[in-house]
């Protein structure tokens, strides 16, 4: 059976799959990155994992993988196939595409940024399916974004496109590690909500999920914390939709797990802010933590389309 290898490398763990031509997950596996053993061990782990997946496909699916796609965090030079920088994984200017190509016997390898890769999957086969223009915004430890245009995701001239978390929504506000003050992710990420709710409750273990439950329970302090985050998020999103005019706005990540507790006030807050802009459809992400793997698989199939002219769905 025709298939590709897909790897989604996170800060602490790796998710992998063998992906069929129709986007189906034929085999899935997970393991730790082993980052506590240093960046060289992380790279060795990625290469070993990919080789094991290739062997599995040969044995169980009747043939080795035709290509591979890998999604990694940090700064990614997709054209050169270089993982330029990752603070969490400790690497700099890592020629990961070349290393994987060598380890996998010369098959073509696509390298992508984790958020943009997840956004590709959400836009093409997930919550944004059928939309010619979309913006994918996962709300996690930070806030990132993926700009979808006609079935692909825009990486920008230098690989920084979509960094909506560093739009300044509160000038002169909370310092951000990026060097600015008042960045969106300092107010509306899951981490920011967790920090604010922990401060209000005096419980360092309290997090955004606890805050959402308290909102549902009618706690006025929780509602204040939550609305503060929603208002900041709406300010950032309206800036983005003014620039990009997406048809669909896909919200994912940990904060989106609150469901209508987030989406009902967020849709209303965005609606109140738009003037001449067209209001996009605002929907939750559909693929969960499989988005990165599915997106990496799509990158691999797209690469085959470019290199051999075959149709990915044949």
Structural class label: alpha/beta
Tally of individual helices: 9
**Rg from Cα:** 20 Å
Topology as a string of helices (H) and strands (E): EEEHEEEEHEHEEEHHHHEHEH
Could you give a short account of the major beta sheet?
Answer: 5 strands, mixed
How would you describe this structure to a colleague?
The chain is α/β, with parallel strands linked by helices and 314 residues long. Helix content is 39%, strand content 21%. The chain has a five-stranded mixed β-sheet, with helices on both faces. Strand 2 and strand 3 form a beta hairpin. The radius of gyration is 20 Å and the shape is globular. It starts with a strand and ends in a 6-residue tail after the last helix.
Provide a compact summary of the structure.
This protein has helices spanning 39-60, 96-103, 114-125, 185-188, 190-201, 208-216, 220-244, 260-273, 291-308, and strands spanning 3-9, 13-20, 25-32, 68-72, 75-77, 82-86, 91-94, 109-113, 133-138, 146-149, 152-154, 248-252, 281-284.
